[in-house]
Amino acid sequence: QVQLVESGGGLVQPGGSLRLSCACSVNIFSFTSMGWYRQAPGKERQLVARIINAGITNYAESVKGRFTISRDYAKKTLYLQMDSLKPEDTAVYFCNAEVGVRTSSYWGRGTQVTVSS
């Protein structure tokens, strides 16, 4: 059974940093790709960062140079290091994992990130 649990969200001032974690119940090498998405009030859920099995990463233009996605196979955990946070980064952040191509998709319940002074 695949379960994803996000943690690390909270309230931070502009310019601050947070590290989000996504703990998985199964070995994460089982997934074709993993990623972080976010959803702000009144907006659609959008991709923030993604990492595929080969190790290639891609980021939304709005977070390039500020966010870093990584994974720890031993800990079965996906991370999102967020630096130089801006108020527009405020959203609920969701962990995602996929198997195959349009075969299976798994989601966590999200963690709230609020950037405000």
Structure description:
With 117 residues, the protein is an all-beta fold. The chain is built from no helices and eleven strands. The strands form two sheets. Strands 2, 4, 5, 6, 9, 10 and 11 form a seven-stranded mixed beta sheet that branches. A four-stranded antiparallel beta sheet has the order 1-3-8-7, with no helix packed on it. The mean pLDDT is 96.
- How many DSSP-defined strands? 11
What is the rounded distance between the termini? 40 Å
Dominant shape: globular
N-to-C series of helices and strands: EEEEEEEEEEE
The percentage of residues in β strands lies in over 45%
Main beta-sheet strand count, sense and barrel state: 7 strands, mixed
The parts where pLDDT drops under 50 for at least 5 residues are: none
Give the proportion of residues in helices: under 10%
- What would the average pLDDT be, to the nearest integer? 96
- CA radius of gyration is 13 Å
Overall structural class, as computed from helix and strand content, comes to: mainly beta
The number of distinct helices, counting runs of at least 4 residues, comes to 0
Keywords:
mainly beta; 4-stranded antiparallel β-sheet; 7-stranded mixed β-sheet; 117 residues
Protein topology:
Blueprint: E1 4-7, E2 10-12, E3 18-24, E4 33-39, E5 46-52, E6 57-59, E7 67-72, E8 77-82, E9 91-99, E10 104-107, E11 111-115
Parallel strand pairs: 2-11
Antiparallel strand pairs: 1-3, 3-8, 4-5, 4-9, 5-6, 7-8, 9-10, 9-11
